[in-house]
Amino acid sequence: MTRTVPEGWRKAARFVWIAALVLVALSLVMVVRAPTERVMGPVQKIVYVHVPSAIATMIAFGITFAAGIAFLTTRQWFWDALGAASAEVGLVFATVVMITGPLWARSAWNTWWTWEPRLTTFFILWILYAAYQVIRSSLRGPSKRTISAVLGIVFFVMYPVTVYSVNLWRGSMHPQNVTMQGNMRQVLLTSMLAWVVFYVAVLERRLRLEWARRAAEEERLGVGAPAPRGHVAARGAEARGR
Amino acid sequence: MLSGASLALEPGEVILLAGPNGSGKTTFARILSTLLPPDDGEVTLDDEPVSEHRALTRRRIGFTTHVPLLYRGLTPVENLVFFARLAEVRDGGLRAIDLLTRFGLKDAMHRPVANFSRGMLQRVVLCRALLNDPPILILDEPYAGLDEDGVAAVNTVLREARAAGRSALVIAHGKERAQSVVTRTVHLRDGRIEAA
Amino acid sequence: MILLEVARKDLTLYARDVRFLATLGLFSASLTLILSMAFGPIYQDAPREAAATMWASLFFAGVLGLTRSLDMEREAGGGDALRMSGADPYAIYLGKTLANFLLLAAVFALLLPLTSVFFDVGSLSGLPRVAGVAAIALLGYSAWGTLFAALARGLQARELLLSVLLFPSLIPLWIGAVKLTHALWGEGGTASVGDWVKVMLVMDVLGLGVAAWLYEPVQEAGE
Predict the structure, then answer these.
(1) Does A32 touch chain B if contact means CB atoms closer than 8 Å?
(2) Which subunits count as partners of chain A given 3+ CB pairs below 8 Å?
(3) Who contacts C17 (Cβ-Cβ below 8 Å, separation ≥6)?
(4) Cα distance between residue B68 and residue C185, in whole Å
């Protein structure tokens, strides 16, 4: 395996980064120029970071989930690398959500924490995927990949039930969706797109790190170099009668 | 650490695998017994890859390690009967008592294993490995910490296996204790297996 | 049946480890005591505080039980012998889940009277329904707990990690258990009893179902 990613990948990555930077810049401009919300003032604009981050997080964890399944079925290192990279990037975005959420809430409702169902569920997810990192980093051997895949699958599977139960617990006392009209919607949609592309760009970078790790590991193990394959054959006689 | 290690085990053979600490003997034993999948290469039993019928393959292998694979809180009988039922051995209870008696554990049969000496533990462990009358034995460091009687018990098992046409792989540091029963000795050096 | 054999083996080991059982009982009782005192001496809303106390204690006790079951397997060579027996991994999983469930049920049987007495809640006639809620909650706890415990078996600080994994992910079970127990002990009902039962049952089925697929790779995951 080559030390660094193939040329085709790097070309695509350059394109993604340029797209990401352009889109993020564009969305920033739009955010700055967006109409200021009457009641909340400029702080409301945090939502343009908060919501897209949340979407990026869910995409990230969804990819970890799919990669986990792919790994368990194919056992190819790439799926484990993708899952782990996505989980880590997802955690970063989740942190952004957890910081911007209370900031927005303070401004809108004058409290830091309101047990808003989605934010609550996000906190739960944050803890779980932080635990994922802790567990993954403390495993060394071949079990690391399997266990990471299993965690990635299990956490995502639990998500819908958790959301439902938090909603049930909360009762529906808070407006679930922030409705926006016209201009604001456009800004939000552009921000969402920008952040998702940004997520892909960051994921790509993180994946490169996994690739390099894998290359180093293979070098150390001497895999890929023409190494003799072991072959163990055993033949056993069945005891007949006693 | 293993690289191109190859071995063929035929009926009636008792092979001693020697080698320095850390050379990968235990890893090799675990790969052979299907507990550890190899990164590359293959293990076959009677010309069929072991990955195909893993459960069946495992039941044809009697495996021991230096950690006694027994539940400390159970008696020898309870341990053996439990494993016999799990491996779907017919008349597991009878077989358990039979084996335990043969190994001189008749009186200790109903005491929890927790208080057994190393030698007694090893004998129970051997009984467990022999429960389903496996055609293949893989014993990892079976002599560790044993006194003369214990060593004799292990060697009896190996001798009987040889006579019955079964095969055994014994992993040990040095050759002395196994010398009398071994048919062939190989070394694990630099990740490969070489004749002694 | 392999399932029953494994369950019986685990339960026998639990039963013979008197020190462990005593510690488990004392731990849960102490936790119940602390929380009862923290809420008391005059209880604002006894059914609510009692439910929270009992389930919090049960939850922590469960982590101890699961860790103990892990340690028992580790002493016996980390599950190598189980794997070498060629027994169906899912049957092994179900057996362990059953044993853990019964252990937790025993702790529940200890904490229920204790909590009822401290907070002066509950009644004999209401017992079957409270037990029913506990059965659903503890089944889910055992199902997921056994899977997570197997997963965490090679890790250091197992109790901590197990807690970190179990507490957030089983929130639907916990809130459901507390709310339903509260409703049963208190006067008012929560309007959404049916919904909570549904949520908890979904968690139970999910746990047992997901493990059907994932337990074997976890068991084979090696060191």
Answers:
(1) no
(2) B, C
(3) B73, C68
(4) 50
d(CA B38, CA A13) in angstroms, rounded, equals 35
Strand partners, B138: B63, B169
Is C65 in contact with C103 (CB distance < 8 Å)? Answer: yes
Domains of chain B, first to last: 1-60+134-196 (3.40.50.300), 69-132 (no CATH)
Segment C113-135, tens digit of pLDDT:
999 999 998 888 889 999 999 99
In total, how many domains does chain C have? 1
What the block records as the tokens of C101 is 């469930």
Structural domains of chain A, count: 1
What tokens were used for B83?
């494993």
What ipTM describes this predicted complex? 0.89
Task: List CB contacts (< 8 A) between B131 and chain A.
Answer: none
Interface size, chain A vs chain B, as Cβ–Cβ contacts under 8 Å = 88
- The predicted-structure confidence for A91-144, as pLDDT tens digits, reads as follows 999 999 999 988 888 877 788 888 888 889 999 999 999 999 999 998 887 889
Chains linked to C by 3 or more Cβ pairs within 8 Å: A, B
- Residue of C209, C3, C219 whose CA lies nearest to B54: C219
Per DSSP, the three-state class of C88 is coil
For residue range C136-171, list pLDDT tens digits in order. Answer: 999 999 999 999 999 988 887 888 888 899 999 999
Max Cα-Cα span within chain B: 47
Give dist(CA A25, CA A33) in Å, integer: 12
Domain enclosing residue C32, as ranges: 2-219
Q: Which residues contact C162 (CB under 8 A, 6 or more apart)?
A: C63, C66, C67, C145, C148, C149, C152
- C118: Cβ–Cβ under 8 A, 6 or more apart, which residues? C32, C33, C36, C40, C50, C53
| Mean pLDDT taken over chain B | 85
- Residues in chain B whose Cβ is within 8 Å of chain C: 33, 35-36, 54-59, 61, 63, 65, 67-74, 78, 82-83, 85-88, 112, 128
Structure tokens at C186: 């208190």
Asked whether residue A30 is domain-assigned, the answer is no
Residue in B43, B19, B20, B40 with CA at minimum distance from that of residue B30: B43
Give, to the nearest 10 degrees, the angle between helix C89-119 and helix C127-151: 130
Q: Summarize pLDDT for A152-204 with one digit per residue, the tens.
A: 999 999 999 998 898 888 875 554 555 666 677 778 888 888 889 889 889 98
